[in-house]
Specification:
There is one protein chain. This protein is an alpha+beta fold. It has helices spanning 18-26, 51-54, 64-70, 81-95, 124-139, 151-157, 174-180, 191-199, 205-209, 213-220, 222-230, 261-282, 314-325, and strands at residues 10-15, 35-37, 48-49, 75-77, 102-106, 109-113, 143-148, 166-168, 248-258, 286-295, 300-311, 334-344. The two termini are 17 Å apart.
Amino acid sequence: MYPFNTDRKIIHVDMDAFYASVEQMDNPELRGKPVAVGGSEIRGVVSAASYEARKFGVRSAISGVLAKKYCPHIIFVRPRFERYKEISRQIHKIFRDYTDMVEPLSLDEAYLDVTQNKKGNPSATLIAQEIRKRIFYEVGLTASAGISVNKFIAKVASDINKPNGQKTVNPDEILDFLEELPIKKFYGVGKVTTEKMYQLGIFKGADLKAKSQEYLEKHFGKSGTYYYHVVRGIHNSEVKAERIAKSVATEHTFDENISSEIFMMEKLEAIAEQLEKRLKRHNVAGKTVTLKIKYSDFTQQTRSKTLPYFIADKSLLLETAKELLYQERMKDSVRLLGISLNNLNTEQKKTVAVQLKFDF
């Protein structure tokens, strides 16, 4: 008997140097060259770095000045988040050809529960290979994957054979895998915690496993309980499928507080226009309009109205928001206005989780 649940089959897919790889894909002149997305040699912070840049020590979250120092011939490019979102949607569409149990962590990584899957394929390893192959041929980018019985081990495994590789950790390999794993590779152990563990003589999983739960809780608080369990392969968090939104909202905080209702109407018009774009992009409409008001003293007020029909266009949103604005007098100057639409014409999907045992 294992100390962990072996009934689930989880894949963690992580795109390789996603932002930088998109830029290299779209601009052939950048291919094979050190690229930093964001930042500059004068100011700013690097959002992502190509593998060519990483060889010089360039990483995300370092300053552009430092990136230039590490790699004098680095090429800085401006981030294009709408493009990254577009590519991410293509990738997630591929995921959903295999399972609806997809939990996005960011634009470039997600967990997939393929215990039951749409292809009827009992091998999570083969599913991961197929997904990665499709991402390469249909999107043009490479991805890495980790496969195991829970999210923690799958996440750690996806980093083992990066870039453009995958790692399966079978149930009978998990304990040895975790014991030999360097402590800095444990998901949830950051740089500061790593240094603290080094000071306590904890350098790899086996060292962590040798410590009692009481010892770890004494030194790391609640996180100590987490470390005690994951080094034994115990991590029961389920893949949480992306929920259908119950509301869509847009709001704006002003540089200066405003007290004129005429100015407020101008702001609401822009907010309603932005909200209309979001609703159309997601192809949803709703019946309940809510006006959010935050005053200069940071107190907040909401006013709502439910209509007998679904709306999604700017004119009806603005008309209802205007009615709510004039419903009562403002008690102070305003620092934030927002409009949200609830009671949407979307149905919450119910997922029945069935646990089955398959070979990896």
